[in-house]
Amino acid sequence: MATGRFLVLLFTILAGVYYFDLHNHPAVQEALERPAFAFLAALRQQNSLAVPNVPVVAPVDAPNPQATVASPTGSTRAPFTRHIVAVGDLHGDAGNAQKVLQFSGVVDAFGNWTGNADFFVQTGDIIDRGDDTIKLYKWMERLRVQAATAGGLVMTHLGNHEVMNAIGDWRYVYPSEINTFGTVAARQKMISTGSIGRAWAQNYTATSRLPLHPHLGGPNTPFPPPHHPIHFRREDDYEDESDHTRYYDPEEPLSHSALSFVHGGLSPTYSNLAPFPTKINALSSSLLEKLQHRVQPPPHPPNHYPGLPQGTTSEEVELYDSNGPFWYRGWATDTEEQVCVDVEKVLARTGTRRMIMGHTPDFTGIVSRCNGKIIIIDTGISHAYGGVLSALSIHYTFTPVESDDGEPRWVEREVVSTLYADRQEIIVDEARELVGNFRFQ
Ligand SMILES: *[C@@H]1O[C@H](CO)[C@@H](O)[C@H](O)[C@H]1NC(C)=O
Ligand SMILES: *[C@@H]1O[C@H](CO)[C@@H](O)[C@H](O)[C@H]1NC(C)=O
Q1: Predicted pLDDT of residue 441
Q2: Is the shortest distance between the CB of 112 and ligand 1 below 6 Å?
């Protein structure tokens, strides 16, 4: 793999803030079928930023043989695709969760993995405000195994409500939900050293980093990579919002081609962002371990708030405070001007292009800010809220294109859509042309 010099032709970024309804636009459906060459030709014709009618690249589930191109060295360069579906807070409602996972294509009518998505991501808060705690966590583990068998991956996260329950802060637990466990003691056991608690400890993380292309490594590959620190410019230099490329590593054309997922948010002033996501997840594991292995305190209420365990470190305290990843709400509540400046710092440090989170609900739909650099997917799915049923879909395609000069050229494209029971909207459509040889495993 030739490292070092790649010529990055960054000739277009189609800032995606145009919305349209797929059902009302047959032209979009037609465009979905078109091969990448047509897409590239259209891009070139449009000559960069003139946006609207750019065709949508095929979110194909399998490589499109038409798009395969012979490389200059004679080997065949095949297109690569990845489909990611993310869902926010579920809060004890298995019925609505099934509806969402089904209309987004993650599961079939029986709740089994379909294989239509490569990654299913849940951003935490499965527990509280409903009765289906046991059912939902069992289902996640069943899906995890089914996904792995089909070559897919389920990525689940701890929300503030999972941690609250581990602490003994049961303010949002329904008495009817406790009955599904039998007794308070049985519930304490199951969420500490029992099946649910062990699933949290083994299979749930506080945050994750998902590279879009395997060249950058597998899920949760840390950024910056060890032994290869990437030097960023001073913070003052992040003020110019129009420069979309300033935090790319010039040696690495796919630099930052990754997503982050977290429940609350990755605050720009949080101390332990890097290396990402390793540092946060290590703190979360150690805090959870302390919570699960203490003598379980009598739950609050009616008892007093038990607080964090003896021996909790200051970094673990900071992890769980309002500026930490479980509770932070700034990306939802701060002004557009502020968040669009701050987001660049966090994307730079975490090696990502967009941050996807739940926690702060908008009952009318998924919220996209700063051209999809911030996407908030809590729409109050649970009947406890009566919001809208929603999922986020990301189709990533990496397609070889014909080249006049013998260089291996590709178009990297992300189409991010919001999915609802009755409609879909494209919220981001960005593409870059780049040159180089990449690892696909
Ligand atoms: C769903 O998966 C389970 C195994 O987890 C299997 O027993 C069952 O037959 C599947 N149902 C359908 C309808 O495919
Ligand atoms: C965690 O996930 C693996 C599959 O990746 C599964 O075999 C294991 O049982 C899960 N752990 C728990 C405690 O559910």
Answers
A1: 79
A2: yes
Q: Is the pLDDT of residue 54 over 80?
A: no
Per-residue model confidence (pLDDT) at position 255 = 85
**If pLDDT is split at 50, 70 and 90, which confidence band does 67 have?**
low
User: What b/e string do you get for 66-98 counting C-beta neighbours within 10 Å, with b at 16 or more?
Assistant: ebebeeeeeeebbbbbbbbbbbbbbbbbbebbb
Residue of 131, 126, 189, 171 whose CA lies nearest to 306? 171
Q: What is the fold, at CATH topology level, of the domain defined by 88-401?
A: Purple Acid Phosphatase; chain A, domain 2 (3.60.21)
DSSP single-letter state for residue 299:
P
Whole-model pTM: value is 0.84
Is the Cβ atom of 142 under 6 angstroms away from ligand 1?
yes
**DSSP-assigned letters across all residues of 33-70:** HS-HHHHHHHHHHHTTT--TTPPPP---SS--GGG-EE
Alpha helix stretches (DSSP H) within 301-386: 314-319, 330-333, 336-350
Query: Among all ligands shown, which has an atom nearest to the Cα of 142?
Result: 1
